[in-house]
Amino acid sequence: MAQVQITLAFPFLRANAEGYLARSFELTRRFFFKWTVNWRFVGEKRFLSREFAITLIAVHLALLAIFVLTRWTRPSGLSIPALIFTVVKPLPPKAQQLISLNVTPSFTLTATLTSMAVGMLCARSLHYQFYAYIAWSTPFLLWKAGLHPILIYAVCGSQEWGWNVFPSIDTSSIVVVGCLVIQVFSVWWGTRNDLADVTSPADIVDEKKEHDE
């Protein structure tokens, strides 16, 4: 994913790296309170405050770190330091093959949609067009979380209502944020046992050494 982003950004980075990065990560951007769908219930003063923006960024990074440490690196069977070290010293082919078998389509889709849900939850201002992303991902994430079908229908229905209130009101924005909270935390809990018994590549290397000896 990082390689794709760097490849797409390369022409712009070569032409004007400073301008491209400044616009891509414009942390000082001001948002219009009247258009927000998600955080209207916090009030305009807090919505426009720098403290609120920093809090959202901190929560965003914290949630991503939690998923990276407890879910998204599980297919490798490696700790974060060991995983980073593979950039310098690649794993043996057999270990790489084992990891690739663990990265299933279901795992990839779950990780991708969860990261998107985390980003939506911590976004300072969501506009109505963002529902095009959320609407189709919610059923999958709730199903992956293992929620009862009645709860899935309830969350989807509530979310549909919240996003169809125009202009947004305090109640609808609470519902929008609440549904995203349910998706993020339920999928984290629901996938707690996924790939929990993955064999570490280190064990494969040790077995190979013993066999060679």
Condensed summary:
The chain has ten helices and no strands. It is mainly alpha-helical and 213 residues long. The C terminus is likely disordered.
Per DSSP, what share of the residues sits in E-state strands of 2 or more residues? under 5%
End-to-end Cα distance: 39 Å
Percent range of helical residues: 55-70%
Report the C-alpha radius of gyration, rounded: 21 Å
Q: How many strands in all?
A: 0
Mean pLDDT: 86
Choose one word for the global shape. globular
Name a few traits of the molecule.
single chain; 213 residues; mainly alpha; 10 helices; 69% helix; disordered C terminus
Structure description:
- By secondary structure, the chain is an all-alpha fold.
- It contains ten helices and no strands.
- The protein has helices at 2-24, 44-47, 50-72, 80-85, 93-102, 105-121, 131-145, 149-163, 170-190, 201-212.
- Helix 8 runs antiparallel to helix 9 (170-190).
- The longest helix has 23 residues, at 2-24.
- The model is unreliable at 209-213 (pLDDT under 50).
Task: Give the arrangement of secondary structure elements.
Blueprint: H1 2-24, H2 44-47, H3 50-72, H4 80-85, H5 93-102, H6 105-121, H7 131-145, H8 149-163, H9 170-190, H10 201-212
